[in-house]
Design goal:
alpha+beta; 14% strand; 370 residues; 13 helices
Length: 370
Amino acid sequence: MKKNDSYLTVSDAIKVFDFGGTLIDFRPFGNGHINDTFLVRFRVNGIEKKYILQRLNGKVFKNPEQVMSNIVSVTSFLRNVILKNGGDPDRETLNVVKTKDKKAYYKDGYGNYWRVFLFISDAVSLDLPEDENDFYQSAVAFGSFQKDLEDFPAKTLFETIPDFHNTPVRYENFLKSLEKNASGRADTALAEIEFVKSRKAFTNVLEDAFKKGELPKRVTHNDTKINNVMLDKDTREPVCVLDLDTVMAGYSVNDFGDSIRFGASTAAEDEKDLNKVHFDIGLFETYTRGFLKGCGGRLTESEIMLLPEGAKMMTLECGMRFLTDYIDGDIYFKTDYDDHNLVRCRTQFKLVEEMEQQWDEMKKIVAKYK
């Protein structure tokens, strides 16, 4: 599709959805790297209303119908919970605006899928926390997401990305890539390869806990970075969890762990100077406190005690995925230079090492707040 065609298609998509008013204007919105996003303004009964219109990236989401089915199911459930609790369902969860023929999405003539959500007003989304309280409040938000969806039948959700956080499967894929060595670069990452291999037994910990009945499957978000939480612009308290494209059945400890991997690091994911990369145990405690407060006692004791395993697992898995892509020749993650994925994997492995060094303290922290 040519660039000039995109706005024509936006206009066509707008006409399909049931906004129920008069169009004021629309414009590109946000800085997302996956979907194309637009802010659309309508005048409805004399009042200006804002909406978010998105074109889904078909290269990333192979089954957009399933993605939208999951989103509709989860947000409809959340809406009822919020109403029961006396909250504002138009603000505290995503609200899908249907097409005029009552569908949750529109497929255009180019094969692109479009969807619309109500715009959440008087709230901010942060790429990085501006202070420790922002990180804490994001933890409360994702913990509350677990609590509010406790009774949702997770097994009814589509697995839109098979084995997304199945670390043993990721490990087997790593070995296959290593054997093939498509890039011919495996010899330049011998230390990193050995790092992963020496932790093979650990990759099975969460799956083994699930098989033993110690780790239930729940509704999980699977992309728990702070920029997927809307915070009230004045109080900085959580308003709504965003970006439910990867919502699936999974482990609560993985949602927790992915936040720790990203948020409790002292450096960027692709920091070349490993002396700047550290695991911040203080931020780990801050997030643990907020997450368990948000969960409101809904997690089992065995889940809580596996939170450190979730943090280490998500960090190791992410580093392993970066390393696998480096060996494959950089075919999955976007890179800016030849060894970008190798640099990324090294930061993750540095965090894993420091988690291992502070393991007893991590366990004491989760026990303190359970």
